[in-house]
Amino acid sequence: LVPSGSKGKEKAKTATAGDEDYDMEAAQAIIDADLSSGSSDSDAPRDEEEETKKMRKDAKRARKDKETDVEKAERRKLKSLKYQRTNTDIETLNEGIKGFMESRKARIPPVPRPAEVEKLWKGLYPRVKSWWQEGGKEIPRSHIPGIQKTQDRIKEYCKRVEREQAAEVKAAREKFNQKWPETKKSLRIAHPEKTGEEMVSIEAAARIALKEELGAWTLEQLQLKYRFPSDELHTQIQVLGDTMALCNELPSDEHMERKIADLQRAEQQENTESAKRGIREEIAQAKKDKEGNLRKRTKLLQGSLIFMDKLHNYGIPSSEVISTKANTSFFNYIKSSKGNEDLYRELQRELEKPTMEQLNTWEVAALPIYNIVELVKNEESMKTSDESNDIDTWIETIKVHNSKMQMTNKKRGIGEDVNTIPMSLIYQIRDDWRTDNDEQAQKDIDDLLTVLKSHKHAGTVVEAIETGVAPKLLTQSVPSSSGRVAKDSGASLSDMNTTQSQASVHTTRKESPVSTKPGTSHALDLNALLSYDINSFKPRKISTPSSDYENGETEFGPLVATRPCRTDNARFSRFFVNSGLEVEGYEYIKVIRGSELAPGAAEQLDDQKVVEFDLRQRKRDIKNKKHPIDKIGPVVLMEHSEGYKPTGKPRRMDLYIRITYCGKDDVDFLTRTEYTQLAGKKVAEQDCKAHLANHEQTRLHMEASRAQRRHPITRRTLTKHDFEKTPWLFPDDEKKLGFKGDHIDQESEDE
Predict the structure, then answer these.
(1) By the number of CB atoms within 10 A of the CB, which of 180, 366, 528, 700 ranks highest?
(2) Displacement of CA 155 from its chain's centroid (Å)
(3) What pTM was computed for the model?
(4) Longest dimension (CA), the chain
């Protein structure tokens, strides 16, 4: 939905040549007034009568006829500057619509249509563009016969292709019948964890892909593939047109915020409780209206992004089917307020996030990629056959999961190679290592790291390679040393141990592996079994419900703030939880990495209670006494990740300090650097030092209470009631397996 600016640029270059002495400030003021006045044709009301429109145009023409040469030259200069401003804004709107389309160029474009079909499609583009004039409310009756005629021609073309390629299609179908059983079998081997409907869905996608690859299509499939999507385009244009008309009438966020602020000031000035109550109701309604307006604007901006995505999937250039008026209106709407721009950026980031399947594939592939890099970088490597086999095993692991991701991408229609792993670079690293071309292999690793850094979702493996700390092995099925994936989805624990030991970092090969023989690590003595008092056994819960992450509850305590990862990978986000009690002096704030939470928990919590720290705005609020600092502290330290080994000077632990503000519900958890920028170096150092001592005392008391199963305030033994209300106060084993009632003395329970 971005107006093409090539013509505008040419006009601007032509008209502005030799205009250095022109009053740019005056011109800018006139342009601003002109843009806001709605005097141009593009700003005419949608339902304006033809007679009124004609009168307005005649008046404009009459004004031009009366202009002197100087006035005409001045008007042309203003017009060229307006073109220049519009096109410059579009080019520099990094997070705008054009930026969105640029970011999607990594996608594989759809397969080009045959020239005859493409010509038929192009014949309908002008008609689609005209639908924007009335907001897409209905397709003109005069267009319907032409669209139907085009669809009939496409059907006839498909029938002709079927007749001409009958022999080839028949041979392709026979080849498909031969290859499909083998393909189906390999799919089941590659997806041992999938059962039921999931496997049916995977097989259906693979079946379609294989038919397309071999050319074993049917007439119905071909006609559906080349049918012009007139109904889909019309529906989308209708929705966008109606939503745009609605959003244009909405008050801006700035207006609503001023209204709420005025009401809040009025409430403070009132003396009677009844008047204050009435104003509070108005404030609540204003906030509700503001949220409703946000939902409507979100619908418009989401719809526009999805529409652009659909055009890309159809292979239709946006400039061919979107009118200039719609382009300009949408662009002006985004630029009309900071709130719209911010919302658009947020939605854009959301749509560009990798899918869950893509994230899972990268997480599983992180350890094998890390292992390959570590082995190749190891100068003491003897390049034995075992090491070579290990690399092949790791590459097979990556290849299997990458192939699954490609299949899922194709099924979702987002391009087979979108966000996939750069296998060619990994193969190159292996080949150069095997041929003793160590210098080139190191360059290959640098190239791989550069490519990985361009993938926001490859943060796990990038961090592992740069820090030298192996990423945690996820509980996913990986190929065995023979390069094949285990067929049995219910593999034994000993099999899993074997697989994990083979997939571990090569440098730890000489360490004693965990025993993989069934029963050896947990063998029970026969005499102990015969002497065991079976009457002493008390049944316990073997399963407990997981935390309700949607409501901000975690196994570590309730969520109080979130600092999202800059690369939008929730596993690297920081989650601040209260592992103590909501009582002054007994708050025990911890910071948890997303990777420490249960599967899927980080993604659920990532958009809850987000800290959005704007240094400039905070300084202005403090300076103007609008929202001065209310309270400082406590501080919280984040422990180093498991496996951290300092290579030089030990890195100090990350520290965060909580800041609250007067008249503002938002809470900031700032890093040392951020708080230093806000408060100054001297004040920041003093505050952090003072609150750090309090943090250590609180931490010692809370952790000791947990270990002793005592309540932090009453110092009494924890009860079942405590477990139901605050399970995070209990030791880890009890949190997982349930309340140990037999450990409670009767006196405490009665109390």
Answers:
(1) 366
(2) 40
(3) 0.35
(4) 115
Distances in whole angstroms, Cα of residue 142 to Cα of each of 36, 123, 150, 369, 500? 36, 15, 14, 60, 68
Alpha carbons 728 and 722: distance in angstroms, whole number: 10
Strands 664-671 and 654-661: antiparallel
**Average confidence (pLDDT) over 258-277:** 86
- Residue whose entry in the numeric block shows the structure tokens 């601007």: 12
Greater pLDDT, 385 or 491: 385
Residue 630 near residue 457, CB atoms below 8 Å: no
Q: For residue range 54-113, what is the model confidence (pLDDT) as tens digits?
A: 777 787 788 888 888 888 877 777 766 655 544 444 343 333 444 444 444 444 456 678
Q: Are 556 and 530 in contact (CB under 8 A)?
A: no
Residue 394, Cβ density class (10 Å: 0-12 exposed, 13-18 middle, ≥19 buried): buried
Radius of gyration from C-alpha coordinates of the chain: 33
Q: How many of the other CB atoms lie within 10 Å of CB of 438?
A: 15
Q: Is the dihedral of CA 350, 354, 355, 359 positive or negative?
A: negative
Rounded (5°) CA angle 703-704-709: 100
pLDDT over 90 percentage in the chain: 3
Position 386 scores a pLDDT of 81
d(CA 228, CA 225): 9
- Closest alpha carbon to 322 in 1, 699, 80, 569: 1
Tokens of 569: 């990978």
CA-closest candidate to residue 661, choices 616, 687, 630, 684: 630
Within 13 A of 455's CA, how many CA atoms are on the CB side? Answer: 25
Q: How far apart are CA 614 and CA 668, in angstroms?
A: 10
Structure tokens at 546: 């997981």
Say if residue 648 is exposed, middle or buried (CB neighbours under 10 Å; 0-12, 13-18, 19+): exposed
Task: Convert 142-171 to b/e letters by CB count within 10 Å (16 or more is b).
Answer: ebeeebeebbeebeebbeebeeeeeeebee
Asked if 460 and 569 touch (Cβ cutoff 8 Å), the reply is yes
Cα-based distances in Å from 650 to 464, 581, 626, 644, 692: 17, 33, 41, 10, 19
How far is it, in rounded angstroms, from Cα 230 to Cα 436? Answer: 59
Contact (CB, 8 A) for 622 and 629: yes
Alpha-carbon gap, residue 748 to 313, rounded angstroms: 67
User: Buried b / exposed e across 476-485, counting CB within 10 Å, b at 16+?
Assistant: ebbbbeeeeb
CB 606 within 8 A of CB 496: no
Run of H or E including 442 = helix 438-453
CB distance 90 to 2 below 8 Å: yes
**φ, ψ dihedrals at 648, nearest 5°:** -135, -120
State the Cα–Cα distance between residues 533 and 520, nearest whole angstrom: 24
